[in-house]
Specification:
Number of domains: 1
Number of strands: 16
CATH topology: TIM Barrel
Strand content: 15-25%
Largest sheet: 8 strands, parallel, barrel
CATH architecture: Alpha-Beta Barrel
Order of helices and strands: HEHEEHHEHHEHHEHHEEHEEEEHEEEHEH
Distance between the termini: 49 Å
Structural class: alpha/beta
Radius of gyration: 24 Å
Helix content: 25-40%
CATH superfamily: Glycosidases
Number of helices: 14
Length: 452
């Protein structure tokens, strides 16, 4: 009897220790990780196979596999590389979705578009028209929905990401003094550049497409997300107040405001967190996020896009030697990097190799390290450069994302109570650990900041 009394007292004390106000559960932040499968078939150090992809999945809540596209004549949703994606038993569609057995908390989505649906001999205008033509065609929309649903269902995806290829904004130059006056004066007579004459109709049609897709997906509880690609005007093509009823979250491409392709004669920071002085007020992460919030889209459904790469221009002897942006008189894109094999487009490990390190400490000319310029305000981003020599050669200017700047943006996500981060792309993070020995350092920095 005494033992029973003692046990009852101990139990009462233990329960009393738990009495108090209920603990609030902090919603988990999304970490949406993009994987462009074109990097699976690359040669060299940029090749990202599934074995190298796997270490990232412990950090991701969603994996977005890209990219599928649209068949021009039929409007069917199709794989853009059927030999890679659909090969019986060995295709990447099934290989990737089978990863859920090992990572049961991971959701895997198939992405459509992503600026990757490029056909041979087709220019950018024709390509965009294919996506706009589908919106205007009720029969095409129905066929697209049915075939997109079939791809998701057949290959075991958890949903679909719509990285729709809307027309891009026209690049805008930095003006000052008389230039700003003349720009405003000229605008009175010429008007704004018209991206799409039927934008209002396409906005309405796109909303209807998402509504019908969501209705098709409800039975299977499939997810539906939208990715707003860089330099696509949300106000033109997205009925923001309506979309929250149809999509589970939106991923905002808040980077690439300046690129060598879009701005071959002007180098500038491509992904600032906040507005830069004397720049277009829309060209920053904060503006893009606040636009969606102001238009009644739930903050907890907004994922901020963070790039894992840098944009690089070639500095000339007329570009100066300070490196302070914006820099005029650059000469298009910097030389091709060994991993991305793309002019003016450097993955984080490629940028890291150009920064001062033991391997280039005594390098000269094209092998000399770049000078890194930090952002003490943590508002605009970092850049590095090597001024052109006396012959006008070997000049490089690159602005990029690194683990520290990515962590700063993850802190912004927490402060603003946003949904999470969308990382573009796992293939451009240091997945081999060549820089510091840590694999996926940008991804890790984001994850750590989101949870701590």
């Amino acid at each position: 009897m005494k033992i029973l009394i003692v046990f009852s007292l101990l139990l009462a004390v233990a329960l009393a220790g738990k009495v108090g106000p209920p603990q609030q559960q902090v919603p988990q932040k999304h970490l949406v990780c993009y994987y462009d499968s074109s990097n699976f078939v690359k040669e060299g150090l940029g090749k990202l196979i599934i074995d190298d992809l796997e270490p990232s999945l412990q950090f991701c809540t969603y994996l977005v596999y890209g990219y599928a596209g649209i068949e021009r004549e039929t409007y069917k949703a199709i794989s853009l590389n059927q030999n890679l994606d659909l090969d019986l038993g060995k295709g990447l569609y099934r290989t990737v979705t089978r990863l859920k057995r090992k990572y049961p908390n991971l959701k895997i989505l198939l992405s459509i578009g992503g600026d990757k649906d490029i056909e041979t001999g087709e220019d950018a205008k024709d390509l965009t028209n294919k996506y706009l033509d589908l919106l205007e065609n009720p029969t095409g929309r129905a066929r697209f929905i049915n075939t997109a649903y079939a791809l998701v269902k057949t290959y075991g995806f958890d949903g679909l990401d719509m990285a729709w290829q809307f027309p891009k904004n026209k690049p805008k130059k930095v003006h000052s003094g008389i230039g700003s006056f003349w720009k405003g004066f000229k605008k009175v007579f010429t008007g704004d550049f018209i991206v799409d004459e039927n934008a209002d109709a396409h906005k309405e049609q796109y909303t209807a497409l998402l509504r019908d897709l969501k209705n098709e997906f409800r039975t299977d509880n499939f997810l539906l997300s939208a990715t707003v690609l860089p330099n696509v005007n949300s106000s033109l093509f997205y009925d923001v107040p309506s979309l929250s009823s149809y999509i589970d979250f939106v991923n905002l491409g808040t980077f690439d405001f300046y690129t060598p392709e879009r701005n071959p004669e002007l180098a500038d920071l491509p992904a600032p967190l906040y507005e830069l002085p004397d720049r277009n007020p829309e060209f920053n992460l904060n503006y893009q996020v606040q636009y969606w919030i102001r238009n009644s889209f739930p903050a907890n459904k907004i994922n901020v896009g963070i790039a894992t790469y840098g944009r690089a221009w070639k500095m000339t002897d007329d570009s100066g030697d300070t490196g302070v942006p914006p820099i005029n008189k650059v000469e298009n894109a910097a030389p091709t990097g060994p991993n991305t094999v793309t002019q003016g487009f450097y993955s984080w490990p490629e940028v890291c190799a150009l920064l001062p390190n033991p391997n280039n400490a005594y390098g000269k000319g094209a092998n000399a390290p770049l000078s890194r310029v930090l952002d003490s305000t943590r508002r605009h981003g970092v850049y590095a450069y090597r001024a052109a020599d006396k012959k006008g050669e070997n000049g490089i200017w690159v602005a990029y994302e690194d683990p520290d700047t990515a962590a700063d943006k993850a802190s912004y996500v927490r402060t603003q109570n946003l949904g999470g981060v969308a990382l573009f792309d796992l293939a451009y993070d240091d997945f081999r650990g060549s820089c510091t020995g840590d694999k996926y350092p940008i991804l890790r920095a984001i994850k750590y900041r989101l949870v701590n």
